[in-house]
Every structure is written in structure tokens, then in C-alpha cells.
């Protein structure tokens, strides 16, 4: 292959690698919005690579490529310098992935403009590399090293292009160096993408640990509530058993002594009511146990989902997440066991509730029978037998309730043990995070020590600067005195001019006051005329409204008369209606005459208004003429004053 062919292949490979770097960096920008402002640098790089690959088709392609490279370097230097100031001078401790891109350079023929651009680019590249090294020492991220290498290679490529221009190196050497630069740039983009993914996984693991802690706390509260409810059930069961014993003894006495039963029926009634209340309390507590069971089922389902998510994330994390995966599997097993035990206890509680409901119904029937026992004492013995049977059933149900309560306490203890295990695991994860935080704190302390040393050096510099400032202030005072003397002379001249201007303004103010007084008189007259016209219009509207009301009343009366004509059958009533119609016609004739008179009046008023409007127009024309004459006078006075000022200035100049 010839040297030209090798150069063409290298340039094409450069454009391909730049495109690849641009695509990788676009993916990085999608993950982290901070890198968005660095995307234009890669766009300019891509354009510069394409232009440099089209040497044979574009005239002065090298000059255009170097101009584009200079623009990208200036942009790169500005953003890098801003990040350097925000990191070291502003005192802000921010964890930032700084994306710095170097610039491609191509071999060109010697030209003083291009040579100057290349030296400018080399200086900016070395300074930006120095800033990147300092940023790497602070944050310790591999992407900063990659970009520092890229900048050094870019500067080296410019130096190589200068040597190739003078003929010290072959032309193939320059594109090879730029190709190495582009490969380093691609690797830097890949490393930045990997860093973003690792940080995202860390944040997800932290959120998972926090959610696990919340779920475990909820489970511990639920277990405590279940234990308390079990204790309440046991106490209520003991009370019910004691009440059943009392009822059985009372029923035996009643069966033996029928005469005494009438006196003790009231006592039985009261005891039955107490039993009903106890049964209702037991039902409420059993329903609350059901609600707790539902909560435990929901918590177990959530723990299963969290365990699955944790195992998936641990698989993604690799070797670091193996211990977390084992813990997640144990938590899932405990959740499944707790769910099975809760289902069994829920079935038992439902059976107990059915039995309690049956006993409550029996007690209701017993209360009704006791009320009717005054009439039929013979039925009391049979009822007492039923009571004894139901009390036996209740005692058995209460025994089952106590058994379920003991099982619930055992389940609560198991949940506490599992929760203690999971809390230990979460504490271990927190310890790992705390170790990372301690390392960051050490780095911060080192940075503070460096900052204090820099501050001391700044204090010395500031003292030297203050001495310089004192010398400058002394010079400034001398200059200020000179300026004050000049200002005094200028102020005297300005005062003389202002006095002349005030005299002119006073004359103008007197004339303006006279004009405003005349305009006020004219405006007052116009307002009076307008008010009189508005009053007349209002009167006409009132007259028209009264006419409309009268017409409406007449129409209503006509409607009434028509109805009466339909109702009346005799001739007398028709004659009366005819008379009324004649009266109405006379009224209408009068109203028509009144309307005609009002129309004649309105015509006369319109003529008066037209005359007044003509008068107002004449007055306005006079005002306009007066204004024009006043403006002409002012212009003449100004011309005279200007002529006087010019004459005075000429006289001063001649003196």
C-alpha cells in the first residue's frame, strides 16, 4: 500500500471511531443529564474528523478542520475551567463525572496561521490536562485519567503534525497518533457508562434495604398486636367460662325449686344480658384477629416480592451480592411458612366464630323464653337443659379460642426471630456503607488541610496586594483633587446655564397656566351641555316606558273583556262591554295624541342639540387656533433666545 492509501484508511477509521464515541457518549447522556453540556464537543469532533477525511474533495480542508478543532478546544477549556473553579475555589464538595474531550488534529502544510492555532491548542490542552489531574486527585475516578490521557495524546498529535510539516517525521505517523487518541476516547466513554451503571445499582440496593427495614418494622408491630389480642381473647374466654358455671348452677336450682324460679328470673335476665355483651365483645375481638391475619398475609406477600427483587439484583451485582441473595431466600421461606400458619389459624377462627354466633342466637331465644316464663313455668326445665347444653358448647369453643391464642403467640415469636435476623443483615449492609462514608470523610479532611495551606498563601499575597493598593490610593487621591477642581469650574458654568433655563421655564409655565385655565372653562361648559342632554334622554325613556306599561295594561283588560264576553250570555252584559270598549278606544285616541305631542317635542329638542353641537365645534376651532398661535409665539421666542446665545458666544470668543 502507498503512503496516501494508508493515510486515507486511517482517516476513514478515525471518522468511524469518532462516530462510535459519539454514540457511546449519547447513551451516557441519556443515563446522566450532567454530561449533556459536553455533547456539542463530540459533535464538533465528529465534524472535524469528517472534514479531515475529505482532503481530496474540499479545498483547504486542513484549515477548516483546524478552525473547528480550535473552537472545540476553546469550548472544552471554558467548561473545564468552570468545573475547576467550582471544585477547588468555591469550596463546594460535589461528586461529578467531568466529561472532557480532546480534539483531533491532522497533518497540514506549513502556514503561520495554522502554526499559531496549533500552539494555542497545545497550551490549552496542557492546561486542561493539569486541571483534570487535580480533579482526579480529589474524586479518584478512572474516567478522569482516561480523559487526561486523551488530552495528552491530542497535544502530542499536534506536536507530531508540526514535525511532519517541517519534514522530520513521515506523514503516516500523525494519523496513527490521532487514531490512538480516538480509541482512548471511546474507552473513556465506555468507562463512564460503566460507572453510571454501578452507581445506579448502588442506589437501588440502598433503596431495597430501606424498604426491607420498613416491611420488617411493620411485621414486628403486627406480631405485637397479635400477641396482645391473643391475651385479650384468653381473658375473655375465662370470663365466659365463669359466667357459664354461674348459669349452670342457677339452672339446677331453678329445676329443683319451681316456686323460687319466679323470684330469680330477674337475676337470670341480667346474667343473660351480660353474656350477650361478652359474646359481642368476643365477636369484635375475633373480627379484629381476622383483620390482623389479612395484614400478616399482605406483609408476607410483600416480603416475597421484595425477596425476589433482592435475589434478582444480587444476581446482577455478581459476587458482591451472593450473601444478600442467601438472606433473601431465607426471608422468602419464613414468609411462606408464616402465610401457611396464618391460613390455618384463620380457618380455626372462622369455625369459632360460627359456634359463637350459634350460642348468641341461643341466648337470644333464652331471653325471650325467660320473659314468657311468668306464664309457663313448666317450660323452664326444658329451656334450662338447652342452656346447659349451649354452655357446654361455649366452654369447648372457649377452649379452642385459647388454643388459637397460644398458636398466635407462637407465630408472633417466630416473626420476631425472623425479623431480628433480617435486621442483623440490614445492619451489616449499613456497616459496609458506613465504611465507604468514612473513606470519603478522610478524603474531605485531607482536602480541608490543603485548602487551609492555600488560604495561608493567599493571605500573604493579599498583604502584598494591599501595599500596592495603598500606593494606588495615594495616586488616586491626587487625581481626585485635580478632578474636584475641574468639577468646581464646570459646576459654575452649569449653574449659570441652569439659571438661564429656569427663567425660560418660568415664562413658559405662566403661559401654560393661562392656557390650562381657558381649557378648564371650555371643558366645564361641555360637561354641562352633556349632562343636560343625558337628562333629556332619560326623561324621554321614562315617558316611553310609561306608555309601554299603559299599553300592556290595556291589552290585559281586553283579554279580560274577551273572556267575560264568552262567559256572559245576557244582552246587558254585552252592552256594558261595548261601553267599556268605547272608553278604551277614547283612551287609545288620547294616548295617540300624547305620542304625537311627544314626537313634536323630541324634534324640537333635537334641533336645539344640533345648534349646541355647532356652537361647541366653533369653540373647539377657536381653541385650536389659539394653540397654534401660542406654539408659533414659543417658537419665535426660542429663535430669539438662540440668536442671543449665539451672539453672546461669539462675543466671548472674540474677547
TrEMBL record:
Location of the Methyl-accepting transducer domain: 187-423
A GO CC term attached to the entry: membrane
Zinc-finger is among the record's keywords: no
Keywords: Coiled coil, Membrane, Transducer, Transmembrane, Transmembrane helix
A Pfam family the protein falls into: MCPsignal
Gene3D superfamilies assigned to the protein according to its UniProt record, in alphabetical order: Methyl-accepting chemotaxis protein
KW Hydrolase (keyword) present: no
Transmembrane segments: 6-26, 38-58, 64-84, 96-113, 143-164, 176-196
Coiled-coil region(s): 467-629
GO annotation terms (biological process): signal transduction
Record InterPro entries: MCPsignal_dom (IPR004089)
Protein name: Methyl-accepting transducer domain-containing protein
